[in-house]
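Researcher: Last one for today. Full complex below.
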Amino acid sequence: MSLLWLRFALGCYFVGLVYAFVALTRTSDLFSRIALHAATIGMVFHFVSLAELFLSGQIVWASVHNSESLLAFLSMSFFLVIYAIYKTTSPGVVVFPVVFFLTFVAALDEQPVLLTQFVSHKGWLIAHIMLIFTGYAALLVSFGASLLYLLQERRLKAKKSTSLIAFLPALEVIDQIGYRSLLLGFPFMTLGLITGSVVAITAPSIGRVDFLDPKILLSVLMWAVYMVMVFTRWNSGWRGRRAAFLATFAFVAALAAWAANYFSAMHRFGTS
Amino acid sequence: MRYQLIGLNHKSAPLEVRERLAIPESRLPDTCRGLTAYPGIEEGMVISTCNRVEIVTHTVNGHADLRGFLHDHFHLDASAVDAHLYEFREKDAVRHIFRVASSLDSMVVGEAQILGQVKEAYATARAVGAVRGQLDQLFSRAFAVAKRVRSETAVGTSSVSIASVAVELAKKIFGSLQGKKVFIVGAGKMSELAARHLLAHGCASIFVANRTYDRAIGLAQKFDGQAIKFEDLYTTCDRADIVITSTGAPHAIFRREHGEQFLARRKNRPMFFIDIAVPRDVSPEMGKLDGIFAYDIDDLQQAVSSHVADRRKEAERAEAIIAGEVEKFEARISTLDVVPTIVSLQDHLETIRQAEIDRVRGRMGQLTPEQEMAVEALTRGIINKVMHTPITTLKTAAKESEATTVVDVVRRLFNLQVKGKEAQLEQASKKDEPTKKAEVGTRQ
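Model: Here's the assembly. Have a good evening.
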């Protein structure tokens, strides 16, 4: 059942995906409103899907697909919060495709829930997942904002008022969206990593913790870049090209840390 | 629809000619009165702005000598202005007025001022009684059309002057201009104007630097700002978010190294340079820095002209709206045109009926109430049956262009008196009411 709701949500997000591509070439108020509504309806389905998973009583989100679904949901929530504050749907240009992709993968099939051995650390585990995913979602939005910042900067520097990407909000608004998500995401990411480490070290069933595990290395790397981003921004106001470069780096590191789920020994979903 | 219009505008006449016809505001009421007193003119109104002089009238027969009025009133030599005048009648006059009110006929298409000017002209003419039913109808519709054009198309949304383009760009960079600081380098008319625009959009404070310190102080006082010594320019400039520069310096005064300093001190918060100096005050190298947005006079000009092109596209949509509105207006007005005829036709026949009944009553002797009613019903019935076709024909004709001909024929056939202007106007302004009355009349 949960999968069915998720597929409904996927249908709604598809509208958002189309919007993301159309928005790059033309501005349409009507279409951005449609995309916004579709996204909201999609989130309702998505929420039902997640709630059903949760109520099934198992440790949820302990399969790759379920966690992807959760991450997509959190990213969408971020998008809506930004919309509520800044009244702009433009971050959707980056957020929608990623959310669609995540939901698409998650909606492919149902995976058996395998992390039953963590029952003793259920609270820690849920905290770890929620924290780190909120961090991921914030990072995604921040990454999207830095790309949009670059676009808008180019456009202003080109000095030609083309109707292309005219939908973008003012440069400082994009900057604020990016910076605030960054600031918000950082503590979540940090706490997420800490709780993860606690689970890894104290859970008896997991065995010896290998700190050279690619998942751990990549996570630390991502966190380090994240910290550099926050620091350079706070200290010398880095934005534009340099900030986008860092954000891309952090995002790629995050993706890699994520992808490491498939080959790392740490998160042995689907293998044990 | 006996509207008639004569006028000239920035396209048809050079400034010298427009000047000669321009009517000062104080003399507008007199001109309006003179207009209505002129033979053949029922109602009249004058729109006089720096770009146009238009005389709009509703005439008795659609062929008033408006040129004659102009010559007389302005004591003009016909040869001097006639070549620049345009004249519109009926539908074309309606279209022209709709276009003027919607700012499609303006020098800067979409500028909002013209609607206000037309409204004022209308109020003036109305106050002296020169505008009544017919022009009232025309102009209230014109204002509604202008509103529609404004809300349904983007004509008038993009700004055109350099100063407002600067404001728009600043908004693209900073979002809200609330609390942003402006630095004027080199006091000049244009930079003053740009600063005024920026302040009007929320900018907080102004610094002024000028080679002559006294002028800086003078300008700063105007804006309640702060004068800065020119030597301190580089150390204070980074305090401003927007810099308007227009010095007469022969070379760039803002170079790359200055930009780098500013950005370092500002922690890379962006800066917007509006460079209206020729030669330029901001070196192109500095404009390449991340976080420095420098627009020179050509860039601004280009932004202005691209807006103009956008407007042209929107103007086409606006023209379509107006074409539709002209059709609708024409249809409504012509329906109103036949209503007085229908009413007077009914009155005419009713008088005949009453007279005939009175005439034979003596011969019929005493009638019972039932018989009385029967006679009433009989005579009314005959009249209504006979009238039915002519009235239907009139109503149908109203919707087509032949209305005036049919109205003429009916009036002549029945020898109907043309009612006084006042009564007609009154009926016209009651709009649908007379139609209803007419229908009730035929059904009885």
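Chain A touches chain B at residues 152-153, 156-157, 159-161, 169-173, 236-242 (CB under 8 Å). Residues 1-113 of chain A form one domain.
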